[in-house]
Design brief:
alpha/beta, D-Maltodextrin-Binding Protein, domain 2, five-stranded mixed sheet, 11 strands, elongated
Length: 266
Amino acid sequence: MKKQHLFILITGLTALLLICLSQFVFITPNAAQPTAKLTVSAAISLTEALQDVKQLYGRSQPSVALTYNFGASGALQQQIEQGAPVDVFISAATKQMDALQAKNLLLPNTHRNLLTNQLVLVTPLGVRTITSFKDLTRSQIQRIALGEPRSVPAGQYGEQVLNFYGIAEQVKPKLIYAKDVRQVLTYVATGNVDAGLVYLTDARSSKQVRLAAIAPPSSHTPIVYPVAVVRDTKDPIAAKAFVQFLFTRQAQAVFSKYGFKPALKS
């Protein structure tokens, strides 16, 4: 009888030990779960580069979970103005960032210029008759894709380039407006248009388009990507740390891989 009681006691203790161990196994990983969550609204032209940055940042800061919201800078600006829960904003132009700063929607002393880019003219791979912006006036060229200037910085730069060459009015009837620069790239890559104006980094991201011409810097205002922490962020410390990381050598190497260049200190 004593042996039976001892067996039951040992069995019970073993079961209790297994339960405790299972609780330890399943609870311990939760301690490594992210303790900070950041939403980063960024210009869609940064998509691939920021995805790589996310992996890089995750290895050095596993306690921070990043969620990206990509889109046209003007649309992202409006979302922030309407109270969208955003921690960090990266625009493809200073106009949108300056507008938010004027409305006191940015955390003080966090607005900095991060990157620069170039505007280029691209065509579908099979089209080799276009080698300059002035070629867009030719009668054979009937459809030209451009980002909607009211919300897409690339569209705003594009308008400036067309005016610089004195061809804006001539090509206006040919313009097909897109919601963002990536839609312009898609229109060109699929052959739905004869040409499109995008960033150099976008042109380099697609094997379905041909680089036809690069707009000279004097033809448009500088293409600068500013970054800032949004005033209503729930975690200003984590948001500032992420912004600071974007300026590190490791992050800048990622941006450089995709064709971006560092901005001059602002």
